[in-house]
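Action item from last meeting closed. Structure (591 res):
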């Protein structure tokens, strides 16, 4: 359909009558970039179109529940009236959607003949509205364990005003939750205050609210969990916001961050020169190559340029940022000891913002909002925060990006999805004119060109999963399924903005796609220098291949391998996993 308010194209078409919008049906392997930001999961359901049509035909206040994804088993082959869903079957009547006889004739026991799966019950609007936010208590700390790393900014500030003591009260509760004492429910936030009128605004800077320096209103409590959300422990002193029953950080994220930290970030303080025994140079200097001429002073002043592709809720982004800031904090402390200052040292609780320049790119609007609020808790939500989250499709972001990054991470989805789109274009007749267009030509330059026609409107109609089952939570679907690209898209994007000398790309993929990951690296002009060995998923460390003029001098690349077992047969974490991963990332192990 034509978008509301979209002008018709002025280009001449060999037609004598104005033409209605023309639609063309196409199939894509991934969501086109032009339609990527129209929805968090384009094509996952048809709730927008169906809801708008129903609400326009009735005046009741009941909002229909959104439809779920297309059934992974029957793939809606019996309900093809709305558009050809990747099949050549003829269209059938819509009446069979509510016909018990036709439902029984369908024979699909997964969807019951409806062609679509029901939405996760915990994702319905009514369910989310009645679920208060929750601050989850941390696991009990084993003997001798103490969280390390940079503290959370939200827990450092002190409220000096007596008109609002809620900040200190919530911080006290979070400290209690960190100690594993209790969970805390968070009531919904109060409605926003009315905006100031122009005659009440004496100072133009009064309503410049960045949510960071105002302790007397709820803008500084943006990190509090809202209905349907939880503020859970991440690592060290940091926490992360996640929705109940939606996408949450997993073992894949933790191991990817751990490999990025151990393989690409020195902690602390010696730097391994490029070409070290393990074949993996370090990024402890944030772009330095580890030469002996580099001093710790220069290392602390040069920020690490870090990019996370498809950052989601920001779990990997914040884990790696936490490790970089922790490493820089330790380097700064070592530098102070080496200088042997006579005056008392000024120990800063927070590392310098120049230690890190991190960017996370995510196309899902809900995930972007959660990641930004989590960063507000951990690092502050001011514009000077060393880590930012951009709302964009990373495929388009790298096209517009001119920076080079020392470290890039990514956790691509694993399961293939095919998409059906409609492209809407509008044409007009050759001789068509209107009084408005005719009058607008009076007194204008004859050489003036008409405005260019608007681009075609691309709408994703259907998403059909080809491997496994489509998640029934809308935020989990693009996190697990290849909506905006798989390993190939991630490798291609990383190769375009990776620093050619010391830049490293750390990416995770399913073990069944190992051959596919190898091909993706070669096609993107990268080489694998380290990979894991496992049965579930593999984490790769890649770098750009040397240029042709450097191939004679460059040593032959040797891919190193390592293996990490996460759980025993009994389901318990292995001692190796607890010691290496939990210990390095400041996560308490089992008691």
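Sequence:
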């Amino acid at each position: 359909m034509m978008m509301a308010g979209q002008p018709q194209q002025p280009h001449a078409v060999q037609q004598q009558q104005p033409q209605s919008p023309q639609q063309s049906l196409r199939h894509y392997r991934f969501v086109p970039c032009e339609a990527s930001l129209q929805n968090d999961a384009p094509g996952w359901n048809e709730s927008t179109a169906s809801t708008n049509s129903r609400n326009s035909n009735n005046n009741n206040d009941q909002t229909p529940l959104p439809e779920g994804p297309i059934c992974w088993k029957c793939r809606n082959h019996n309900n093809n009236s709305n558009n050809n869903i990747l099949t050549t079957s003829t269209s059938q009547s819509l009446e069979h959607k509510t016909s018990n006889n036709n439902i029984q004739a369908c024979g699909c026991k997964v969807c019951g003949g409806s062609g679509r799966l029901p939405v996760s019950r915990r994702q319905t609007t009514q369910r989310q509205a009645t679920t208060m936010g929750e601050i989850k208590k941390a696991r009990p700390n084993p003997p001798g364990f103490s969280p390390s790393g940079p503290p959370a900014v939200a827990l450092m500030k002190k409220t000096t005003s007596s008109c609002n003591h809620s900040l200190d009260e919530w911080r006290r509760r979070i400290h209690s939750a960190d100690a594993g004492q209790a969970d805390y429910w968070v009531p919904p936030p109060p409605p926003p205050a009315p905006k100031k009128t122009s005659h009440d605004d004496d100072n133009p800077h009064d309503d410049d609210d960045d949510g960071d320096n105002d302790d007397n209103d709820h803008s500084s409590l943006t990190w509090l969990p809202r209905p349907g959300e939880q503020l859970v422990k991440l690592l060290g002193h940091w926490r992360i916001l996640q929705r109940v029953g939606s996408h949450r950080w997993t073992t894949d994220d933790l191991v990817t961050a751990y490999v990025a930290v151990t393989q690409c970030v020195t902690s602390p303080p010696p730097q391994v020169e490029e070409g070290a025994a393990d074949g993996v140079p370090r990024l402890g200097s944030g772009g330095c190559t580890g030469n002996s001429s580099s001093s710790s002073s220069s290392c602390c002043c040069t920020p690490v340029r870090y990019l996370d592709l498809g950052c989601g809720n920001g779990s990997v982004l914040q884990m790696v940022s936490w490790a970089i800031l922790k490493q820089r904090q330790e380097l700064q402390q070592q530098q102070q000891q080496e200088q042997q200052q006579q005056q008392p040292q000024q120990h800063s609780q927070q590392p310098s913002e120049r230690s890190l320049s991190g960017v996370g790119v995510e196309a899902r609007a809900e995930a972007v909002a959660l990641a930004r609020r989590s960063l507000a808790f951990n690092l502050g939500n001011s514009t000077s925060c060393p880590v930012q989250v951009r709302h964009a499709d990373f495929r388009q972001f790298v096209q517009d990006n001119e920076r080079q990054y020392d470290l890039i991470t990514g956790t691509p989805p694993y399961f293939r999805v095919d998409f059906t789109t409609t492209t809407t274009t509008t044409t007009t007749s050759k001789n068509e004119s209107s009084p408005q267009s005719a009058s607008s030509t009076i007194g204008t330059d004859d050489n003036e060109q008409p405005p260019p026609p608007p681009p075609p409107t691309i709408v994703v109609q259907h998403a059909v999963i080809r491997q496994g089952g489509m998640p029934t939570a809308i935020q989990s679907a693009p996190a697990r399924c290849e909506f905006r690209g798989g390993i190939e898209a991630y490798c291609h994007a990383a190769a375009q903005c990776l620093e050619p000398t010391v830049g490293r790309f750390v990416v995770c993929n399913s073990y069944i796609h190992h051959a596919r990951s190898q091909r993706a690296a070669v096609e993107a002009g990268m080489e694998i220098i380290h990979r894991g060995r496992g049965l579930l998923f593999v984490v790769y460390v890649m770098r750009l291949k040397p240029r042709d003029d450097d191939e004679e001098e460059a040593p032959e690349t040797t891919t190193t391998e390592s293996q990490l077992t996460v759980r025993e047969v009994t389901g318990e974490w292995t001692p190796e996993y607890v010691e290496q991963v939990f210990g390095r990332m400041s996560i308490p192990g089992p008691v």
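Note appended to the action item: The chain is about 25% helix and 15% strand.
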